[in-house]
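Re: that chain you flagged

S.,

Sorry for the slow reply, it's been a week of failed gels. I finally had a moment to sit down with the sequence you sent. For the record, here it is as I used it:
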Amino acid sequence: MNHLLEQAIDVSSKRSSVGAQNRESNMLARVQNAKEQLKLQYKQITQIEISRMTGMAVENMRRYPRIKEVLNKVIEEASSERRRRFQWQEEEWVYQVDSTIESLLEQNIKVTQESIARHLSIARGALKHYPKVKIILEQKVKDAQKRQFQERQIDIINKIKWAAQMLKARRMPISENAIAEELQISVGSLRYYLEAWATLHRAVKEWTDEEGRTRSRVEKMVEDVQAYLRELESSRQVISYQIISNKLEISVKTLKRHAQTREIIDRTLNGRADVPSGVTIVSPKAKTESGRRKDKTHRLEGGLTMFSATGI
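Prediction finished late last night. Pasting the structure tokens below so you have them in one place:
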């Protein structure tokens, strides 16, 4: 009796095992079919997607060794695919960031992490999710900013030199404030560029030194003019711009250009200086009128001679 019972149990067990194997094979076929369908649809193959397509819970599927092995392989493949996608996206963002930096430099737009992210329409934090992109953002942005700073400084240096020349041409004082106003840049902003600031100081110093030398030359010229005027006055000689010019070897134009010498000579010529009696002063106006009278007399005398020769 016991022997028959054992045989019955053994047969039932075998049938149960065969049934389980059949169910596993059937489920495995459904899982494999789901994987193929996901591939054809270009969808990511995951346990969740297979469960959704087969209608079987992940927990139930993983009870069967062969299906569990397939699902484990799906997990590994999905993980490898994510890594490949991540690397591909990282390389793509590296290229995009590099291109954006060059584009911003060409457009003379300040290169910052914010301007790059804004140009790419992506959050700065999302870019930093990729290690290679994060390195570029930290290093290449600094390099680009240094380059832009240097280019800006060179531009300001050239503008400072140009402003100094303009002020000098207009005979205006050259100072920090005058150049800053000419460039429409605050003095404080110029201090930020050390090389440009040094150029500014050199321009101011050169003008100051030249102005000092010019002032010394003018002062000496004034002293020479005063001394020669006294000499002419004491010797009762004719006084004129040309006489002073010939004696001092200074052009009439230069004598008239400087206010001090012009005022001294004009005051003397106009009789407002204390001139000793007997000194002849020839003003430009008087000299011109005298010349006109001589020319008129000469023409009259010439006319009379012609009349006499014709017997009239």
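What I noticed first: The radius of gyration is 51 Å.

Talk soon,
D.
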